[in-house]
């Protein structure tokens, strides 16, 4: 396809990210003595020495470097502990490893209008095959997110294999990076990708990166690089828009470069699809204000949500959603799509938003395990299933069930119930019901949210019913209802 790429602004979107001049002592010295911003260093490769700006999300006052240090120490302690304590390993809960992987074809399938597919390579690496209307024909446009192949280092090994190797990827039209952390951005993986794409397809993908990361890629001689900040939109011909929106995260690859590049989530809009694709990347739970800014500008129908990390929440909550938060985001997107005044049946409600999990089942960051996302979602769904009223204070059974939830999961259950109580739907007999009962929330979630297998291709779009959770067996030992 022959098309131009134009950068513009999202009309009506007010970004929350803050870009500030870097007035740190090191930056002042580098600025004074004209020190280059990027150099090549042994072991580290191309490294950013300093930057003109720093970036934070609105009202972010946390010391993320200290948080990261505590998380690192927790991870190392957990590694050492796992040597002596069997049930402390990444696969401490018995898992049939044949259930971890799918063997779906990585090459795009048939083109269907209003249906796109997502192939999960692992962690935050997904391959989207998106239909677009180009010159009156429906074509496939393929987007790759946050490609990282192999382990991050000997301290952060990869615990599950990739669904496919970079050299086997289909033709990639565009790459999207959410931020520069090592589990989301790896220059060597990018180099292998660009080499294989040129060799196999004579193709050079467009690369979209947060502001500040483009200079590093340009220094490494990568081409077709476009920097973006929340509120920017890339217009690809007349068939697609890729917009940068706010996330609650941070950036940094070494001890000296915290906050020196931007970070974002991304919304993708195709002229051959009803509704937009939301790739969260890495983010803490968005505030109502931040989410409203997104849903007022974009009709989110497909949501790619991070699954944790679910431990060390004191240090994680300022930069990472929990797995349970992904369910809450799903319900929040449903609420946003019902604000148009349309009277939806319950079946139509369950089709309004489709959510896939990613950013899980790959690396160990703190005391994590392979099944953490499955376990957390089991607990939340079991709690909702056991609640026969949307009023927790008046329900003794609910109090008992909530007592086995982790604190952040209990907050999610309460917020899901509160939002669901404001959603109106139509029964089959035409009766209008104000508020979704808790047991119906469980049905809605289990039929429109999925934790894919690694190497699985999932079709999403109109007419695609019952994604199903694909949960690993629950073995938490709590006295909960069976899912």
Please explain how this structure is put together.
The structure is a single chain. The chain has twelve helices and 21 strands. With 483 residues, the chain is an alpha/beta fold. It has one domain: Ribonuclease Z/Hydroxyacylglutathione hydrolase-like (Metallo-beta-lactamase, Chain A, 4-Layer Sandwich), CATH 3.60.15.10. The strands form five sheets. It has an eight-stranded mixed β-sheet with strand order 1-12-13-14-15-16-17-20. Strands 11-10-9-8-7-6-21 form a seven-stranded mixed β-sheet. Helix 9 (372-386) runs antiparallel to helix 10, helix 9 crosses helix 11 and helix 9 packs antiparallel against helix 12 (438-446). The longest helix is centred in the first third of the chain and has 21 residues, at 64-84. The N and C termini lie far apart (46 Å).
List the helices and strands and how they pair.
Layout: E1 5-9, E2 18-21, H1 25-32, E3 38-41, E4 45-48, E5 53-56, H2 64-84, E6 115-122, E7 125-134, E8 137-145, E9 174-176, H3 187-201, E10 206-210, H4 214-219, E11 225-228, E12 232-236, E13 240-245, E14 265-270, E15 276-279, H5 288-297, E16 300-306, H6 313-316, H7 323-337, H8 346-352, E17 354-358, H9 372-386, H10 396-402, H11 407-420, E18 424-426, E19 432-434, H12 438-446, E20 449-450, E21 457-461
Parallel strand pairs: 8-9, 9-10, 10-11, 15-16, 16-17, 17-20
Antiparallel strand pairs: 1-12, 2-5, 3-4, 6-7, 6-21, 7-8, 12-13, 13-14, 14-15, 18-19
Helix pairs in contact: 7-11, 9-10, 9-11, 9-12
């Amino acid at each position: 396809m022959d098309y131009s790429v134009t950068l513009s602004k999202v009309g009506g979107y007010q970004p929350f990210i803050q870009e500030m001049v870097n007035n740190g002592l090191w930056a002042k010295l580098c600025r004074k003595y004209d020190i280059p911003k990027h150099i090549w260093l042994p072991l580290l490769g191309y490294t950013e020495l300093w930057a003109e700006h720093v970036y934070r999300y609105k009202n972010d006052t946390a010391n993320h470097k200290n948080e990261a240090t505590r998380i690192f120490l927790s991870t190392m302690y957990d590694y050492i502990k796992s040597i002596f304590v069997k049930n402390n390993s990444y696969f401490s809960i018995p898992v049939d490893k044949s259930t971890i992987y799918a063997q779906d074809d990585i090459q795009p399938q048939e083109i269907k209008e209003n249906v796109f597919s997502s192939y999960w390579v692992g962690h935050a690496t997904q391959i989207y095959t998106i239909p677009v209307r180009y010159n009156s024909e429906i074509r496939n446009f393929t987007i790759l997110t946050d490609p990282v192949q192999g382990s991050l280092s000997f301290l952060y090994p990869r615990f599950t294999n990739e669904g496919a190797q970079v050299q086997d990827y289909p033709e990639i039209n565009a790459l999207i990076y959410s931020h520069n952390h090592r589990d989301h951005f790896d220059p060597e993986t990018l180099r292998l990708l660009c080499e294989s794409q040129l060799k196999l397809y004579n193709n050079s993908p467009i690369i979209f990166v947060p502001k500040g990361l483009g200079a590093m890629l340009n220094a490494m001689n990568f081409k077709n690089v476009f920097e973006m900040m929340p509120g920017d939109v890339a217009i690809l011909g007349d068939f697609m828009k890729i917009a940068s929106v706010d996330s609650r995260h941070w950036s940094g690859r070494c001890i000296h470069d915290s906050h020196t590049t931007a970070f974002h989530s991304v919304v993708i809009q195709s002229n051959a699809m009803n509704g937009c694709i939301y790739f969260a990347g890495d983010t803490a739970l968005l505030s109502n204000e931040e989410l409203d800014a997104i849903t007022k500008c974009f009709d989110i129908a497909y949501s790619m949500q991070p699954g944790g990390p679910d431990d060390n929440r004191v240090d994680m909550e300022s930069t990472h959603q929990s797995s349970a938060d992904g369910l809450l985001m799903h319900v929040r997107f449903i609420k946003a799509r019902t604000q148009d005044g349309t009277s939806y049946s319950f079946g139509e409600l369950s089709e309004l938003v489709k959510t896939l999990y990613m950013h899980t089942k790959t690396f160990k960051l703190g005391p994590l395990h392979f099944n953490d996302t499955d376990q957390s979602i089991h607990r939340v769904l079991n709690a909702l299933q056991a609640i026969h009223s949307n009023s927790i204070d008046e329900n003794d059974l609910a109090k008992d069930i909530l007592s086995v939830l982790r604190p952040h999961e209990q907050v999610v259950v309460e917020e899901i119930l509160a939002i669901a109580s404001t959603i109106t739907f139509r029964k089959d007999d035409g009766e209008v019901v104000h508020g979704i009962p808790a047991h119906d929330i469980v049905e809605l979630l289990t039929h429109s949210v999925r934790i894919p297998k690694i190497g699985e291709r999932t079709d999403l779009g109109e007419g695609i019913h019952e994604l199903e959770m694909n949960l690993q067996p629950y073995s938490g030992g709590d006295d909960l209802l069976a899912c």
